[in-house]
Amino acid sequence: MDFHGFLKALARRWPTVVVCLVLAVGAALAATGLSIPVYEARTQLFVATHTGDDSAQLNQGQSFSQARVQSYAEIVTTRQVTAPVVKQLKLRSTPEELASRITAVAPLNTVLIDITVRDTAPQRAARIANAVAERFISVVEQLETPKHPAGTKQSKKGRTGGDDAPVSPVSLGVTQEAVAPVVPVSPRPLLNLGAGALAGLLLGAGLVALRETLDTTFKTSETLGEFTALPGLGTIPYDKNAPKRPLANSDGHSKRAEAFRKLRTNLQFSQVDDPPRIIVVTSSVPGEGKTNTAVNLALSLAEAGVSTCLVDGDLRRPCVAPTFGLVQDAGLTTVLIGQARIEDVMQQVVGGLSVLAGGAVPPNPTELLASTRMKEVLQELADIYEVVIVDTAPLLPVADTVGLASLTQGALLVVRAAKTSREQVRTAAESLERVGVRILGTVFSMAPVPKGGRYGRYGTYGYGSYGELPAPRASAHRTEAAASAGTPVTGGR
């Protein structure tokens, strides 16, 4: 997926990004609200050496201090410093716990040591920082004080009380005492909010990228054509009114009606040298719009003056007759078992389209559709009509269509946008090619188009579960044919 495709995916799946952003920001605000404020108190020490007035000695002493100060910073968190402080201030923590809240830093090329103490109480943080500095000074000076050689007498005077008393070559002084901080260093609401927003955006973008990677459906007819290497004969846009008004010609100026006219034209021009007379319309799985495509393609051909017959070849869940409000019980199965002739059960609808309903649902649809008699019926229809459109069952759930398609001269494969997976399309195409069926092309149904596109804004629609019948059409579309008894058919489903 390239960058442009990723941006389109973000625009298409923006609710995912928004949800992740809201959740992450909410988590950041909750963490900020539940966090206990932490304060920092800082004190600063200066390390000096005892030297004479000679400038060389002064330089040597400063170099000595800078060399030693890095080591001094490591002593601040030792037990020698923290244990007396815990005892002195009567803290409810161990020396190790106190050490974890102390930070000592010696800036490079300086003789300064910064001691920082973190605590939940600002006054206590300042007291601890000052106590640590005081104890640290004592420990360092004791460590730096030279000891008498073994066997010599040590003066009973103090550290500076006599000429023989050992003196520490360094001394530490406080340049800045710790004071109680006013503002806590943690939590930081603005920082947490920014981090939460950034994390939410990254999470949302990651989920979008993951979904796009795992989503193997087709978003555009171009990607479908690249995958199947089959011509895309038509793209049928989404129409929210399609379930209630399945016949696109009821509104002759709609974008959906125009799309079926374009499909009709592309089909006629795609096979100029060898135009198919018997065409099956099928799909991989239920709910892809194959019946709707077959019905409206047949109507569009009839409106163009092409003598057309629409056959309901889905004998498990027939939907053609209910779409027009025709009689369902007399139709293809009635002809196949020899109870009626084609002309006896053929029904007419407005527009000059002839419809052969499915008839009664048989117990063995696969055998009937692949029978020699079915081949004869199709040939009889081809002798009467210029084009025979056969609506069939989906390819993958049942084997009915494979046997029937082998008796025809071409197949249209309907693929639903953002619904049919690549594996389903590949398996369906291979099943048709395996029995020698010529796939005329694909129809990209229920296709959304970008906002502001020439078809406007579209989503997706469907007819419910496979086999769920649409509402009957008005009486204007009811049959004008006679049933086998010769009486006009006035009823419908």
From TrEMBL:
Membrane topology: Multi-pass membrane protein
ATP-binding as UniProt keyword: yes
Cytoplasm is among the record's keywords: no
UniProt catalytic activity: L-tyrosyl-[protein] + ATP = O-phospho-L-tyrosyl-[protein] + ADP + H(+)
Annotated localization: Cell inner membrane
E.C. numbers: 2.7.10.2
Disordered as annotated region, ranges: 143-168
Principal cellular location given in the protein's record: membrane
Example of a GO MF term: non-membrane spanning protein tyrosine kinase activity
Gene3D superfamilies documented for this protein: P-loop containing nucleotide triphosphate hydrolases
Name of the protein: non-specific protein-tyrosine kinase
Residues of the AAA domain: 277-406
Domain Polysaccharide chain length determinant N-terminal, first and last residues per copy: 2-89
Pfam families registered for this protein in UniProt: AAA_31, Wzz
UniProt record similarity statement: Belongs to the CpsC/CapA family.
Keywords of this entry: ATP-binding, Cell inner membrane, Cell membrane, Kinase, Membrane, Nucleotide-binding, Transferase, Transmembrane, Transmembrane helix, Tyrosine-protein kinase
